[in-house]
Design goal:
The complex is a heterodimer of chains A (242) and B (227).
Chain A lengths: L1 H8 L1 H33 L13 H28 L2 H33 L7 H22 L3 H29 L16 H33 L4 H8 L1
Helix pairs in contact in A: 2-7, 3-4, 3-6, 3-7, 4-5, 4-6, 4-7, 5-6
Chain B lengths: L5 H18 L1 H21 L4 H24 L4 H6 L1 H7 L4 H30 L7 H25 L6 H29 L4 H30 L1
Classes of the chains: A mainly alpha (242), B mainly alpha (227).
Chain lengths: 242, 227
C-alpha cells in the first residue's frame, strides 16, 4: 500500500498515470452533463410554482455543491501536504483553487439570474448567497497568497495554513450568515419527498458530471503543474520527446 | 534547556512590545485618528439627522473599528521580522504558540484597546443612547480581540510579501465577517432597547475560539515565513 502510495507521488509516475486517467474522467463527464442538461431542460416536468424558471436549478445547485466540495478537497489536500510534506498534495490544493473559484462564480451568477424572476431583484443579501460570496473571497485570498510568494515551497505551505484556517471558519461563517438573514428556500436536493424522481435524476447526473469534470480538469492542471516544477528534469525531456 | 518559565518569558515579551510601541507613539495613535475620521465622514455623507444616524450607528461603528484595527495589523510582526528579532524568538526554545499569543495580546493592547476607549466618543457622536454604550464597549473589545488573534495568522503569512497590506485585508476580512455580523447586531439590539445578550455571548464564544486556536495557526504561519 505505502510503496504504491509513494510511487504515485513520484512526479514521472504520476505524470504518466494522470495522462492515462484524464480521458476516463473527461468523457463520462461530458456524457453525464449532456444527459443531465437534456433531462433538466427538456424532459423534467415544469415546476407548478416557479414555472420554467426553476430549470436553472440544474446548473445552480450542482455548482454550489461543487464549490463547497472543492474547498473541502483543497483543505484536506493542504492538510496532507502540511503534515506529511507531500508535494503532490500541495499541487492538488493549488490546482483545485481556480476550479473551485469558477464553480463559485457559476453558482453566484446562476443564483442571481434565478433571483430576478423569483424574487424580483438580481441580488439579495440572502444568507446562502452571501456565504457563497464569502466563499469566493476565501478562494481569491488563497489564490492571491499563493501567487504573491515567489518560493514555491513556501507558497505551498503558507497557502495550506490559510486553507485550514478557512475550512475551520467556513461553518461559522455559514451559520452566522444564516442567523443574520435567510430568504433562500431550504435545500430541496436532500429533502426526501420534496422532488419527484423525474425532477431529481437530471440534477444528480449534473452533479456527478461536474465531479468527473472537476477530476478531469484537476488531472490536466496537475500535469501542467508537474511540468512547471520539474522543467529542468531529464525524465520530462524524454517523456515529452516521445 | 529552557531557563525562563513560560509566564516570565511571556511577561518579558509583552513588556518589550509595549515599550517599543510607546516609543513609536504615532503607530498607536494613527488607528484611533483614522477611526474618528472615518466615523465623521458618515454624518457628512448621509445626513446630520439624529434618528437616521442612530439607525446606521451600529454598522458604522463596527465597520470603522474593523478597518482601523486592520490598518495596524500589518505591523504586528513587520519590524521584528526585519531586524531579526522574530528569528530569535523562533529559536528561543519557548513554544512559539505561546509567544504568538503574547505578541497578539500586546498588539491588541496598543491597537485594539485605544479603539475601544475611543468608541464611546464615536458612539455619542452618532447619537447612540447612553444605555447602549456598554454594549458598544464590550462588543468592540471582543471584536478587536478576535481581529488581533485571527489577524495574527494573516500577518504571519504575509510577512516578506510584496504589497502585503492589501493581501492581508483580502485574507483576514472574510474570516472576521461573523464577528462583524454579531457585533453590529448586538449594538443594534442595544440601541433598539433589547437585551444584546445573545449576540454578545456568541461573540465571546468566537473570541475564545480565536484565542485558543489562533496562536497555533499563527506559529505555523510564522514557521513557514521564517524558513
Amino acid at each position: 500500500m505505502w510503496t504504491w502510495f509513494h510511487k504515485l507521488a513520484s512526479p514521472p509516475h504520476f505524470y504518466r498515470i494522470a495522462g492515462l486517467v484524464t480521458p476516463w474522467f473527461a468523457w463520462p463527464a461530458l456524457v453525464l452533463i449532456l444527459v443531465g442538461l437534456y433531462g433538466g431542460l427538456v424532459l423534467a416536468p415544469m415546476d407548478y410554482q416557479q414555472g420554467e424558471g426553476f430549470r436553472i436549478f440544474y446548473v445552480h445547485v450542482p455548482s454550489a455543491i461543487m464549490s463547497m466540495f472543492i474547498y473541502s478537497t483543497m483543505a484536506i489536500a493542504a492538510g496532507i501536504g502540511l503534515i506529511w510534506r507531500m508535494k503532490l498534495a500541495h499541487a492538488v490544493a493549488a490546482a483545485s483553487a481556480p476550479i473551485g473559484a469558477w464553480f463559485t462564480v457559476c453558482a453566484l451568477a446562476t443564483g442571481s439570474l434565478w433571483g430576478k424572476p423569483m424574487w424580483g431583484t438580481w441580488w439579495v443579501w440572502d444568507a446562502r448567497l452571501t456565504s457563497e460570496l464569502i466563499l469566493l473571497f476565501l478562494y481569491l485570498g488563497f489564490i492571491a497568497l499563493r501567487s504573491s510568494i515567489e518560493d514555491p515551497q513556501r507558497a505551498d505551505r503558507a497557502a495550506a495554513v490559510l486553507a485550514l484556517v478557512g475550512v475551520i471558519n467556513l461553518p461559522i461563517i455559514h451559520y452566522s450568515v444564516v442567523w443574520w438573514n435567510s430568504l433562500h428556500q431550504g435545500s430541496t436536493m436532500f429533502n426526501p419527498g420534496a422532488m419527484s424522481i423525474e425532477m431529481k435524476w437530471p440534477a444528480l447526473a449534473m452533479l456527478f458530471g461536474f465531479m468527473l469534470y472537476f477530476g478531469a480538469v484537476l488531472f490536466v492542471r496537475l500535469r501542467a503543474e508537474v511540468i512547471r516544477r520539474e522543467r529542468s528534469a531529464t525524465w520530462l525531456r524524454e517523456e515529452l520527446a516521445r | 534547556m529552557r531557563q525562563t518559565g513560560l509566564l516570565h518569558a511571556g511577561a518579558l515579551l509583552y513588556a518589550r512590545d509595549l515599550k517599543l510601541a510607546f516609543r513609536r507613539w504615532e503607530q498607536v495613535t494613527q488607528p484611533v485618528v483614522f477611526f474618528l475620521m472615518v466615523t465623521t465622514l458618515f454624518p457628512l455623507a448621509l445626513s446630520p439627522d439624529t434618528a437616521q444616524l442612530r439607525e446606521v450607528a451600529a454598522g458604522v461603528v463596527w465597520v470603522a473599528a474593523l478597518l482601523s484595527a486592520l490598518l495596524a495589523l500589518e505591523f504586528m510582526f513587520r519590524s521584528d521580522y526585519e531586524d531579526g528579532t522574530l528569528e530569535q524568538l523562533v529559536l528561543s526554545g519557548q513554544p512559539l504558540w505561546w509567544l504568538s499569543l503574547v505578541k497578539a495580546a500586546a498588539h491588541w493592547t496598543v491597537s485594539g484597546l485605544p479603539l475601544v476607549v475611543a468608541s464611546p466618543l464615536v458612539a455619542v457622536s452618532l447619537a447612540v443612547p447612553a444605555e447602549a454604550q456598554w454594549t458598544v464597549i464590550v462588543s468592540l473589545a471582543l471584536g478587536t480581540g478576535i481581529l488581533s488573534f485571527l489577524g495574527a495568522v494573516g500577518a504571519g503569512l504575509t510577512l516578506g510579501v510584496r504589497r502585503g497590506s492589501v493581501l492581508l485585508s483580502l485574507l483576514v476580512l472574510p474570516l472576521t465577517m461573523p464577528a462583524l455580523i454579531f457585533g453590529a447586531r448586538a449594538v443594534d439590539m442595544a440601541i433598539m432597547g433589547d437585551s444584546p445578550r445573545g449576540p454578545l455571548l456568541l461573540l465571546a464564544a468566537m473570541f475564545i475560539m480565536s484565542l485558543t486556536l489562533g496562536p497555533f495557526a499563527t506559529s505555523a504561519a510564522l514557521k513557514v515565513s521564517m524558513e
